Amino acid sequence: MTETTAQRSLVVKTTSGTDRPEAANQALTVAAAAAAAGVHVSLWLTGEAAWFGVPGRADELALEHAAPAAELLEAVLATGTVTVCSQCAARRDIGPDDVLDGVRVAGAPVFVEESLRPGAQALVY
User: Fold this and answer.
1) Over 90: is that where the pLDDT of 67 sits?
2) Is 32 helix (H, G, I), strand (E, B) or coil?
3) In Å, how far are 18, 26, 53, 93 from 63, measured between CA atoms?
4) In angstroms, rounded to a whole number, what is the distance separating the alpha carbons of residues 29 and 24?
């Protein structure tokens, strides 16, 4: 990891869930790869991806030739942050007590704050 990489952060937002498995897995893969490289990662689960914040739901994403979504999510949680969008959670009756340990529920102001920090790069899938 270079000094520049250590100072950078990556914010990954995905709106895709099991409805778009390739896009969902791509977002999780990029977030997990960045986390493994030592980059601070903030993964945002929005839209149908909000379900991945609920225990057991990432296991429902099955994609041939891809790492299991649950393992990718665990890799991000090990060193970064995972957030379920508060509006998306409310629309799906997902409460703060319904999500995996380490997953938070937060809204757009937090996403904007993280995305605009110096050294941050935001990607949306």
Assistant:
1) yes
2) helix
3) 10, 10, 18, 27
4) 9
Q: For 19-35, b where at least 16 C-beta lie within 10 A, e where not — what string?
A: ebbeebbbbbbbbbbbb
CA 1 to chain centre: 22
Q: How many residues does the chain have?
A: 125
* Structure confidence by residue, pLDDT tens digits, 1-33: 555 555 899 999 999 999 999 999 999 999 999
What's the rounded Cα separation, in Å, for the pair 75 and 72? 5
Looking at residue 100, the DSSP 8-state letter turns out to be: P
| Distance (Å) of CA 45 to CA 5, 13, 59 | 24, 6, 15
pLDDT digits (tens, 9 = 90+) for 94-113: 999 999 999 999 999 999 99
User: Rounded to 5 degrees, what angle do the CA atoms 59, 120, 88 make?
Assistant: 40
